[in-house]
Design goal:
single chain; 310 residues; alpha/beta; 2 domains; 5-stranded parallel β-sheet; 4-stranded mixed β-sheet; 11 helices; elongated; disordered C terminus
Length: 310
């Protein structure tokens, strides 16, 4: 009854959640359409383009929603813990008290896993001391968002995840194993986000890609977007934004270094300026000198034929 598939997402919801980011209207529309599917999405593109930030921001679209999370469920006399205070954000709302203390009112959960994901994390884990099972990540993410970050770089191979989740992605039912080998059914009612900087068709086969209804490429940014991101980052640090200085930085990146503009660069360059100012014990300023030093520290130099190969 609380499935994310039942949530209708509209442009104002997307605009509210993404107001702090610089994302083009076409991508926002694609994200909103994908959320209305309530199933899954593939975000792919070069590193530093903002895929993880966008994936995490998707969870804010549901921030105003509340769901009931069971502390635990019982199957054939076995207890499976579901509520996790690290993942589930409890909401105190006396008006929505149903009087059943087995349930906790929470925000829709948002679970992020990256390179640490293993095949064991996708099944029940038995606590031999406490004598109960701990629910896997997808069970705790039910009615919320599950983000598989850096997909393809996990300790489990993409094919393993494919074989494990073909049925759940299709039928919204997961099968978990108790210690004795018995299989039990659990709901698989979440919005799954796969984020990767690798080519999707090189990671998984067509059968798996078909089950991921929406694929969105998050690419490099324009000069205008670079300016806006830089201005926002500077404003957040109470720094003066100088358009001519940023124009010079863009010229250096694109022409001197022959590199594309990416969403992470304004923040990373300003961080470099901050670290240098703190080291020297001087006020932080965004000027041609500080920008040049930051770029030299941050970017690899353009390839030169006379470089000695080590």
């Amino acid at each position: 009854m609380q499935s994310v598939r039942n949530v209708a997402v509209h442009p104002p919801d997307i605009q509210r959640a993404f107001t702090h980011l610089v994302v083009d209207p076409k991508t926002l529309a694609q994200l909103g359409t994908a959320l209305n599917s309530g199933t899954s999405i593939f975000l792919y593109g070069p590193t530093g383009s903002g895929k993880t930030t966008i994936a995490e921001t998707l969870t804010k679209v549901f921030a105003l929603d509340k769901v009931w999370i069971p502390y635990a469920v019982e199957v054939d006399g076995e207890i499976i813990a579901v509520y996790d205070p690290v993942i589930h954000k409890k909401v105190d709302d006396p008006e929505q008290d149903i009087g059943d203390r087995r349930w906790v009112l929470c925000e829709r959960p948002a679970v992020l896993v990256g390179g640490e994901l293993t095949i064991e994390m996708l099944d029940l884990q038995f606590n031999t001391i406490a004598k109960f099972y701990e629910g896997p990540v997808q069970m705790k993410a039910n009615n919320g968002v599950l983000i598989i970050d850096d997909f393809g770089r996990q300790r489990l191979r993409p094919e393993e995840l494919l074989n494990r989740w073909v049925v759940p992605l299709d039928r919204h039912i997961d099968f978990l194993s108790l210690a004795g080998g018995k299989k039990i059914e659990m709901p698989f009612e979440m919005f799954v986000v796969f984020a990767t900087n690798m080519a999707p068709n090189a990671l998984v086969d067509a059968a798996f890609l078909r089950r991921i209804q929406t694929k969105i490429r998050i690419g490099n940014i324009s000069a205008a977007q670079f300016h806006e991101i830089f201005r926002r980052v500077a404003d957040s640090g109470k720094l003066q934004y100088d358009r001519s200085v940023v124009d010079e930085l863009i010229h250096v990146i694109q022409h001197s270094l022959n590199q594309p503009l990416r969403a992470c660069q304004p923040r990373d360059i300003i961080n470099q300026i901050y670290w240098a100012a703190r080291y020297e014990g001087v006020p932080m300023r965004i000027d041609p000198t500080s920008i040049k030093r930051a770029a030299e520290a941050y970017f690899l130099p353009a390839h030169r034929e006379d470089e000695v190969q080590g």
